[in-house]
Write a structure and sequence with these properties.
This protein has nine helices and seven strands. By secondary structure, it is an alpha+beta fold. It has two domains: about 260 residues, Beta Polymerase, domain 2; about 50 residues. Helix 2 runs antiparallel to helix 3, helix 6 packs antiparallel against helix 7 and helix 8 packs antiparallel against helix 9. The model has no long low-confidence stretch (mean pLDDT about 85).
Length: about 325
C-alpha cells in the first residue's frame, strides 16, 4: 500500500487533502466526507484491505488482481458498481498494449486500481489519467462533489487519450494515403503493406475498446435507473463519449481499408500484367525452342555446318516470332 494515494474530500468545507493510506480505515468510516483511493498494481494485501475496510465481494477483488481482457461493469452490493476499462498503449513492432483501469464507484468512495501490466510497459503509463486528475484536484483547478463525478472526470480523460491516439493514427493513415497516390511504396510493397496493416490493427484495437466500453456503459445506464444523484447522467455521458470514439475509429478504419484496397488492386494489376507478358514471351519462344531443339542438332554439328539449312531455319524462326508477336499485339496482350 506504500505506493497508493488517498485523497479526502471534506463535504462541509469543500477542501481536498492528501492523506496517508494508514488512515484509510478511519476515513472510510467518517460520514463527513468521501475518499478516493488510487492503487497502482494491487496485490493480495490490497485485496485484504478492499475486503476488510470496504466489504467488497471476493469475485470483484479477484477481478482487480487478475487481468481482464474485456471491459466489464456490474453492481457489487448496495449502490456500488465495479467497472473495468482499457486504454491502448503502442508497443514495439505494431503491438498494442491494453492498459487496465478498474473502478469501484460508491456513494462515499471511489477506488481506482491499475494493472496487471506487461513488463514492457512503464508503470507511469498506467497512471497518466489518475495522476493528472489528482494534481488538478489538489491544486484547486478541478472541483468535484461526488465519487461518481470524479470517476467521470478520470474516464473522460482516458477517453481523450484514446481520441488523441486515434488522431495520431489518422495522421499516419493520411501520410500512407499520400505515399500510395505518389507511388512511393511501389519499390517495396511488402514493407509498405506491413505499415498499412499495422495501422489497421491499431485502429481496430481502439475501435474494439471503445465499442465494448460503450456497451458496458449502456448496461450501467439501465442499472442506474433508480439511483439517486447524478450517477445515471454521468454514465450516459461516458457511453456517449465511447460511442463517438468508436464511430470515429470505424470511419477511419473504413478509409484505411479503401486506401489498402486501392494499393493492393494496383499492385495485383501490375503482377497480372507482368504474368501476361511472361506468358506472351513463353508463347513466342516455345515454337522457336521446339524447332531449334529438334533440328538444331542436325544443322549445327562439330565437323560440318549446313549453312543453307541454318539460314532457312533462322528465317523461319524469325518469321514465326514476328507472326506470334503481331498476333499477341492485336489481341492486346502487350
Amino acid at each position: 500500500m506504500a505506493e497508493a494515494r488517498l485523497l479526502w474530500f471534506d463535504t462541509a468545507s469543500g477542501n481536498v487533502s492528501e492523506r496517508s493510506v494508514d488512515e484509510l480505515p478511519a476515513f472510510a468510516a467518517d460520514p463527513s466526507g468521501w475518499l478516493w483511493l488510487d492503487v497502482p498494481e494491487p496485490d493480495a494485501a490490497v485485496g485484504a484491505w478492499l475486503r476488510d475496510v470496504f466489504g467488497l465481494p471476493l469475485q470483484a477483488i479477484e477481478s482487480v488482481l487478475e487481468r481482464n481482457h474485456v471491459p466489464r461493469l456490474y453492481p457489487v452490493g448496495g449502490d456500488v458498481i465495479f467497472v473495468v476499462l482499457h486504454r491502448p498503449d503502442p508497443g514495439a513492432q505494431g503491438h498494442i498494449h491494453y492498459l487496465e483501469l478498474d473502478q469501484f464507484v460508491g456513494p462515499h468512495y471511489l477506488i481506482t486500481t491499475h494493472g496487471p501490466r506487461s513488463p514492457k510497459v512503464e508503470l507511469s503509463h498506467l497512471l497518466v489519467e489518475t495522476d493528472a486528475v489528482a494534481e488538478r484536484v489538489l491544486t484547486g483547478r478541478l472541483a468535484v462533489t461526488s465519487p461518481a463525478e470524479l470517476a467521470h472526470r478520470i474516464v473522460s480523460r482516458l477517453i481523450r487519450s484514446e481520441e488523441a491516439f486515434v488522431n495520431d493514427l489518422a495522421r499516419q493513415v493520411g501520410l500512407l494515403e499520400q505515399k500510395v497516390m505518389a507511388h512511393e511504396g511501389d519499390h517495396d510493397p511488402q514493407a509498405f503493406l506491413e505499415d498499412l496493416f499495422q495501422a489497421r490493427h491499431a485502429l481496430l484495437t481502439v475501435q474494439t475498446m471503445a465499442m465494448q466500453s460503450a456497451e458496458i456503459y449502456g448496461r450501467g445506464v439501465r442499472l442506474a435507473a433508480r439511483s439517486t444523484g447524478n450517477m445515471r447522467k454521468v454514465i450516459r455521458d461516458l457511453q456517449d463519449q465511447y460511442d463517438r470514439i468508436g464511430r470515429i475509429a470505424h470511419s477511419q478504419l473504413a478509409f484505411l481499408g479503401g486506401v489498402t484496397e486501392y494499393y493492393r488492386a494496383r499492385t495485383d494489376t501490375r503482377m497480372t500484367i507482368a504474368a501476361e507478358r511472361l506468358a506472351v514471351i513463353a508463347a513466342v519462344t516455345l515454337p522457336v525452342t521446339a524447332i531449334s531443339s529438334v533440328l538444331g542438332m542436325n544443322v549445327i554439328v562439330q565437323d560440318e555446318m549446313n549453312w543453307p539449312w541454318l539460314i532457312a531455319l533462322l528465317a523461319v524462326m524469325s518469321v514465326l516470332s514476328l507472326v506470334l508477336l503481331t498476333w499477341a499485339k492485336r489481341r492486346g496482350w502487350w
